[in-house]
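Revision sheet: structure tokens.
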Amino acid sequence: MQIRPILSALWHHKAGTALIVLQIALTLAIVCNALFIIHQRVVRLSRPSGVDEANVLVIQNQWIGQQAPAQLQALMASDLQTLRRLPGVGDVYATNAYPLGNGGWSKGVRYTMDQKSATSPTGIYFADEHTLATLGLKLVAGRNFRADEIGDMGARDVLTPRTIIVTRALADKLFPGGNAVGQQICVGSAPPSIIIGVVERMQTWIGSFSEAWVERSTLVPFRLLASTTTYMVHVQPGAMASVVQAASQALIAANPQRVIGPKDVMTYGQIRTIAYRSDRGIAILMGVICAVLLATTAAGIVGLTSFWVSQRRKHIGVRRALGATKGDILSYFCTENLLISTGGVMLGAVLTVLLNVLLIDRFEMQRLSIAYLVVGVVAVVLLGQSAVFVPAWRASNVSPVEASRTV
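Predicted:
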């Protein structure tokens, strides 16, 4: 197959050729970056939180009116006992926030109080000796909190933990040698705290600002005395439905001076769904965009090739009369499309990189892997060859008799 006659034919159809090249280039650029975004979202959706999500229930409680710290302490202790007495409840504790939640506390971690900039941010979770059992966190080094280490603090008090438990991600960041237990670090502006334990994983809350340190969490041995409290409940397998129904009723029966709405009692499955709702929506939207673009490009190739075939029926018939086989005609149009696709993917590769740079600059996306570009180029070329096959096959079936009728 000689390329020069094909290039000459394409030169006589510059406008149509340029449009298809541009369409292929834009399709490649958008599809590659869209697939990369979809992959990132899917990775986020499947990321483990470290919590035994199948058996943990979250209850948001808000007290009516203003209570003194001593009253809040007594009310919280009473609620914890009420929940622990429910059939099907394994363990309970009170906290300020939870993994996959929509907000919480964060602090910078320093080696010493004199260090000016923090070595790492960390999510702060109020915890007690029941936290590990309630959430199902796996202790990989050190020990759990003791009951005598748990203190109380108000929402505006300065956080000054003497002992802390950190996640392995934070421990590896601070002490890459794996000897975090027994080390001292400063959480925020507090005096040094001793790391007494390391848990395998505990994700922070959902938020783009915490994405870079998503598993660097710190448990501090405090109960937060505030008007709003989050109770984390570990439910025995198979008892989730009954506990969901009974928990809020039991709390309100114990003390009605509170607000617990229907959306304040949620399983962790519901929390995960809410946390990643936008990621799931973006992934679906990107998938639809990719499908529409690929379908449009394929339709454009089919339409343009069919138009060219109808314009060249006389030429095709003459070639057939001069001895060209069906395979020669089929190969001609496939090669013609391959040249167009090659031009499109070359331009598209440049546009793909430029679009990725723009997304990195505007939306803090990660750099696109070259694998996506390679796969995208192969996919677009195969799509073009598939799209051109049917009109090329019709062209190959033009008989020499048709040429003799028109010459």
